[in-house]
Amino acid sequence: MASLTTFTDEARIALDTLSERATGLFSPSLRLGVTGLSRAGKTVFISALVHNLVHGGRLPLFEAQKSGRIARAYLQEQPDDAVPRFQYEDHVAALIEQRVWPASTRAISELRLTIEFESASGWNRLFSQGKLSVDIVDYPGEWLLDLPLLGKSYEDFSREAFELASLPVRADLSEAWRRLSATISSAADADEMTARRLAESFTAYLKACKDDERALSTLPPGRFLMPGDLDGSPALTFAPLPVHGRARPGSLHAMMERRYEAYKTHVVKPFFREHIARLDRQIVLIDALQALNAGSGAIADLERAVTEILGCFRPGRGSILTDLFSRRIDRILVAATKADHLHHESHDRLQSIVRRLTERALARANLSGAEVEVLAMAAVRATREGTVKQGRETLPVIIGTPIEGETIGKERFDGNAETAVFPGDLPERADVVFQHFGTNHRQDAEDPAIRFVRFRPPRLERTAEGVTLSLPHIRLDRALQFLIGDQLA
To answer: What is the structure's pLDDT at 89?
Structure first.
């Protein structure tokens, strides 16, 4: 990403980093970025991570917790006053008291979790304060997908947008926008209402791509889907056009190009400089099950999105000197969420599929210098496992309370009744998923058929003394060990 920033950008990043290093000299901190595409479970992941650490949850593979070296974990004021606070208390109340999933990430937010611990090394105990502050930065993955735009001209952006829109998995969704674009000349005089109609039609196409049936992931510009306080601004009132050559002053082409450049300058660059360039560790959450459910077109698009995301980070390991002026992400975890929607026999298969997807994405993104790990997990486990008899066959099932309105066949659930679901099996070999990227958006004959049912959060267990236990999970402890375990050694 350094090639996509100016000397001024790099100077500001260096000064910001030096200031942070000086402030944290006697108070060590680590900035953990949490991102993922919509419905991947970012809010749930952060809430479960904090809840399990603060309440001493069951984390047998998180070494510092297992060995009893963590004295306590607690929330503190975050260092960035201009960034909204991650509303942890509200999200945990939704999960535990209301048993509903908290609202999705719509903007950037931050939370500081401080861990007091005893080092495993006697030498470290002499020189370490035994305290680490983890600044958790939550941001939408859709915004991250905007960063590659910094290296693209308006003409490049337009050409790629039309190429994507013409793919079989998108063609019917983009038809109205493409048909409208064909009726408008980019050389015509600039007109606000024309720009607005094009932007609204383009945005409608992007939103349709996100529907569960398609589950597509590569949808820049990200703020078109999550505009926040920019809704209706000129910086969001543009769209791709079939253009060639230089724009005539005063033309629609010139207007769109100027607004596209304004979007990069006032939206994308500050996001990179103020947030992405300051991260030490990163977790990327993906909903691979939703993509598998939607078919090969969605899987191919997910791989494209993961490639774009991984290519946005600044990977590498610094030295004592370079760390004073720049941060590098030295560990990246790619996590497939909602593993609780599968029987445990398929957890490793899901992980293998995502590992293969990540390896392909890493090769395309040319990412080097960071340790990358892959994991299938559920930050909050909403189901338990069981078996049912079907004739002479015994089927492994998952048991939980489907969300109100969910259906299986002709049965529609009211949000209160438990049910047992046979979710289907993922293929034993991950290669099967990638051997036949289909040309149709519908389920291909060989695509794994997963019965994807959304469940309510679990009812928490209580001890004999009436103490409510922490949120149950699948492999959250492995995620913690990879992301921060070495900092607590």
So the answer is: 96
